[in-house]
Automatic annotation (TrEMBL):
<protein>
    <submittedName>
        <fullName>Aspartate aminotransferase family protein</fullName>
    </submittedName>
</protein>
<dbReference type="Pfam" id="PF00202">
    <property type="entry name" value="Aminotran_3"/>
</dbReference>
<dbReference type="GO" id="GO:0008483">
    <property type="term" value="F:transaminase activity"/>
</dbReference>
<comment type="similarity">
    <text>Belongs to the class-III pyridoxal-phosphate-dependent aminotransferase family.</text>
</comment>
<dbReference type="InterPro" id="IPR049704">
    <property type="entry name" value="Aminotrans_3_PPA_site"/>
</dbReference>
<dbReference type="InterPro" id="IPR015422">
    <property type="entry name" value="PyrdxlP-dep_Trfase_small"/>
</dbReference>
<keyword id="KW-0663">Pyridoxal phosphate</keyword>
<dbReference type="InterPro" id="IPR015424">
    <property type="entry name" value="PyrdxlP-dep_Trfase"/>
</dbReference>
<dbReference type="InterPro" id="IPR015421">
    <property type="entry name" value="PyrdxlP-dep_Trfase_major"/>
</dbReference>
<keyword id="KW-0032">Aminotransferase</keyword>
<keyword id="KW-0808">Transferase</keyword>
<dbReference type="InterPro" id="IPR005814">
    <property type="entry name" value="Aminotrans_3"/>
</dbReference>
Length: 452
């Protein structure tokens, strides 16, 4: 008899699948959560239950599930030219069109930005690895061979490969993996609600962080620091909006010390903050931009790294001497991913999804404040565009309310995320969500909080 017929799918999963970022013992005790289909904002489980996905997967399904336009674009591209690598100067049409469109999009929506080229990869993590390698390449070509340390922030999330995971500033991701790498430094988390001192104003908090950064640069030596990496809004850390004046003052310091700014826009890119890019929302003028997730709304794993003019000029200038630039991946610029990304951008534009995120953000915040703002353990409710957070405080140490609430929320028919750094529930629904769905999802979450 075929073994598959005697074992349930759940058993098969437990006996064969090593899940990412999951507890092995929880999986053995509770079994997996198996999903079978999704449409719009709603996902369906194998037991027939439907849930409103207030996470858009992992902050990524920006145009919602089941979009025929993206499916069709992918199918047609696969039929036409199922694969074309980009090594040695090769490329397919969708890849070229996507590079051109991304450059124009960033240039036209982020004032003062000057991006010159796009490099493609497969995931947010590898985009950040690419950023580190290009930082090394840039400083080496300029003869500044000691400028190799990277400063990230405590609470940051930049991925989980050895290099990007080292940039991630959440210790639980490092434990038992011999991380972070030695050339990564972490400076203070810019989250005023939790890390501001008693009586300290938001501006004074910003100034303290900037002073601490300057001290770090002085201590290490500016000639050893190659780049600073920042999410415009820190996502997985807890939806931390930059405190007043933060990026302005930060960029002044980086400029003075010839330190590159890498903007990790893996979450904030493609409308999430109510503008096309978080760099536009918060006045960043980065040297490298990492994009993934919303680039294809997760219909295809793809990342893009935008490279500034000043870096590109150095690469181009040294090209005769250096020969082949030896970095890239088999799937860099995959034509199917590129075609899907183009269709995704079409949908974003046709449905004005960035404006929609800007309009619906306040609706989400208002609903959260009305429905859970009075709870004695809710310390802060915040957000920008369609990324929001409920942060808990003042609860007994052992209870981790965000995790308890997440379980109750699933039972109540809404998917939310309990984050790993601070006791925070995050909300980042597809940008296509309706007002009625926001109200319904928050209502379910409020009921879950009451039940917890
Ligand atoms: N950077 C940020 C800001 C992210 O939120 C993530 C993923 O959540 C990553 C990088 C890593 O992306 P990936 O999981 O596609 O490697």
């Amino acid at each position: 008899m075929n073994e598959c017929t005697t074992r349930s799918l759940a058993q098969m999963d437990q006996e064969s699948h090593f899940h990412p970022v999951s507890s092995i013992s929880d999986l053995q005790k509770n079994g997996p959560a198996i999903y079978t289909s999704a449409n719009g904002v709603t996902v369906t489980r194998d037991n027939g239950e439907t849930l409103l996905d207030m996470g858009a997967g992992l902050w990524c399904v920006n145009v919602g599930y089941g979009r025929k336009e993206l499916v069709q674009a992918g199918a047609e591209a696969m039929q036409q030219l199922s694969f074309q690598h980009c090594f040695g100067g090769a490329a397919a049409e969708p890849t070229i069109r996507l590079a051109d469109r991304l450059l124009n999009l960033f240039r036209s929506t982020v004032p003062g930005s000057d991006m010159a080229r796009v490099f493609f990869g497969n995931s947010g993590s590898d985009a950040n690895d690419t950023a580190i390698k290009l930082m090394n390449y840039y400083h080496n070509l300029r003869g500044k061979t000691a400028k190799k340390k990277i400063i990230a922030r405590e609470g940051a999330y930049h991925g989980l490969t050895l290099a990007s995971g080292s940039l991630t500033g959440i210790k639980s991701y490092h434990t038992a993996f011999d991380m972070p790498l030695a050339n990564v430094l972490h400076t203070g988390c810019p989250h005023y609600f939790t890390f501001g001192k008693e009586g300290e104003s938001e501006v004074a908090f910003t100034d303290r962080l900037i002073a601490e950064l300057e001290e770090m640069i002085t201590r290490e030596g500016a000639d050893t620091i190659g780049a600073f990496i920042a999410e415009p809004v820190m996502g997985t850390g807890g939806v931390f909006l930059p405190p007043k004046g933060y990026f302005e003052k930060l960029q002044e310091v980086l400029k003075r010390h010839d330190i590159l700014l890498i903007a990790d826009e893996v979450i904030t890119g493609f409308g999430r903050t109510g503008n096309w890019f978080g760099s536009g929302t918060y006045g960043l003028r980065p040297d490298i931009v990492s994009l993934a997730k919303g680039l294809t709304s997760a219909y295809f794993p793809m990342s893009a790294s935008l490279i500034s003019r000043r870096m590109w000029d150095v690469f181009e200038g040294a090209s005769e001497k250096m020969g082949v630039m030896m970095h890239g991946f088999t799937y860099s610029g995959h034509p199917v991913g590129a075609a899907i990304a183009l269709a995704n951008l079409d949908v974003m534009e046709q449905e004005n999804l960035t404006e929609r995120a800007a309009l619906l953000g306040p609706v989400l915040l208002k609903a959260l404040r009305n429905r859970v703002g009075e709870n004695p353990f809710v310390g802060d409710i915040r957000g920008v565009g369609l990324m929001a957070a409920v942060e808990f405080s003042g609860f007994p140490k052992a209870s981790a309310p965000h995790k308890i609430v997440a379980k109750h929320a699933t039972a109540a028919g809404v998917l939310t995320r309990a984050l790993p750094y601070l006791p925070v529930t995050s909300f980042s629904p597809p940008l296509t969500i309706s007002e009625a769905e926001i109200i319904e999802a928050v209502d379910r979450y409020a009921r879950a909080l009451d039940a917890a």
